[in-house]
Records
---
Amino acid sequence: MEFFKESGLLRVRLTDTRLDASRAPSCKQALIANVTDRPLRVLIDAAAVEFIDSSGLGVLVFLLKQMGDGGKIVVAGARPAVRRLFQITKLDSVFKFSDSLDEATLALGA
Amino acid sequence: MKPPSPLAPDHATAVRLRLASNLEAVALAGAAVRDFALAAGLETSAIDDLELATVEAANNIVLHGYGGASNRRYALAINVALGEVRVVLSDTGETIPEAVLSAPTTAEWNLEDESGRGLAIIRACTDRMEYSRVRGRNRMLLAKRLPSPLPCSD
């Protein structure tokens, strides 16, 4: 997991191909260490992720809860299997999706 | 004659694995189901669903059934029967409580919960899910229907 802060936008790049229960605790620790200022705009670059389970999803929900009130979060480049989990769990009502980083950046007004 | 239960031991099982109860090994269970389902002819989205359901079920065994103990084992069996790809996970850990099995539905979720979605995801990702405890073993069946063959066009 990598973090970039650029002009009011926090970009979180998911670097592993799996975001699952075996990786969730270390990912959550990385968020605790790196997301400290309640960002209002977050872009999750999920292009590398091939598989996500409910524990991985829990990590992203934790990130959502670290954001400031009225914040906006966009997931870019998610594969169908990743999007599917958000649909099943109805979290696609909170997380927005974009096909590319450029589109996501635009959607976040950055 | 009474038909055999899909949860009973099946001599026609095509794949049977014994897995260590650690989260790193859960990916192997998912990969085995993915490869088998692909060979059996499931469509891509159904394969994704069955892999996810298997991983959620295996996570439950490791984290809740065995309470995180990594020195236990559970079994994974995969076969095709009656037009379904069937995955059976069996373990000797704690049984899933009835109250947990029966709730919550997806409509009742708090979107801010970071956990507790596994069983509902399993249900959403399978055409049929059954759970029982037989002779000291918990058995969870996950079934996904194969697509119907296309009719001949001549």
---
Amino acid sequence: MSLFDFFFPKKPPSASIAKERLQLVLAHERADRDSPDFLPRMQKELLAVVAKYIAIKDDMLRVSLGKEGNTSVLEINVEMPSAAKPVKRAANA
Amino acid sequence: MSKVIVVTSGKGGVGKTTTSAAFAAGLALRGHKTVVIDFDVGLRNLDLVMGCERRVVFDFINVINGDANLQQALIRDKRIENLYIFPTSQTRDKEALKREGVEKVMELLRRDFEYIVCDSPAGIEHGALTALYHADSAIIVTNPEVSSVRDSDRIIGILAAKSRRAERREKPVEEHLLLTRYSPERVKKGEMLSVEDVTEILSVPLLGVIPESATVLKASNTGMPVILDPESPAGRAYEDAVARFVGEQREMRFVMPERKSLLRGWFGRAAS
């Protein structure tokens, strides 16, 4: 890097920023597109079940479908709150 | 054998109707019997771009509902032999394009026409899905701009999942990328995504590049497909794209900044 470039750094042309942003967002959207459409529903139902017993927030349970070699892998990630508290249940439950 | 071509993009305002008009005219000029259909129910515009707005009597919905037959609704172009326009209705009922009705109309058209060009509405709702459903080929109209490229990618996904060919597990819809409103000068300055950028991102074979040109507005002002304007660079680029579509080899034009001679620099400005 020359001294000139150091003092007057060139901004990347806006077209290359556009390309980078597009590639990133499309990679995400394509992954979503290829997943079966029952996944969001299943995630919601699983969340409802877990939330009955442990106080977790909506974004703490993630469901995804991936591939490892020839087998499809259904991955369910549940993040536990640091001090997992059981949900208080009504006395008569 | 007839071929159904959908002109689609997801995003609005990128040049679907301009492309449908130019493409249908181009195919007809080459001697193919062609009909161009407006699928944008409620926002009819193909008639204006084709310059036949005062000749619309019956429309697509009339035919679907059995109020008119196909022959009554088809408008024969006065300039180009073999070219017919099938206007849509201005009804506000977006679901008026009933699936069975459209199916029947497409079947009838397939008997009579070599090429059936479907001008899709913007969006991914009922009208757009109906327009692409019957397609054998798709022309994906894209501007070198982030939102247009993203929406094109979305519509490519929908073509692969929701078309009749996809439903029946037949050979997938043949995809063609048409890059419109391209400005080589701005690409050179790094202000605009290049042909290479867009084809790399979308990975769809390139059918043509249509340069940004004032003649496109001039053509729609007067209701003439831009391909009929011999002075228009966009018209020439459409001509090339149509030729490639039917299998001819044509070199890409209008992708490099124009080299202006000194004389053209001085005198050419007034003319362009």
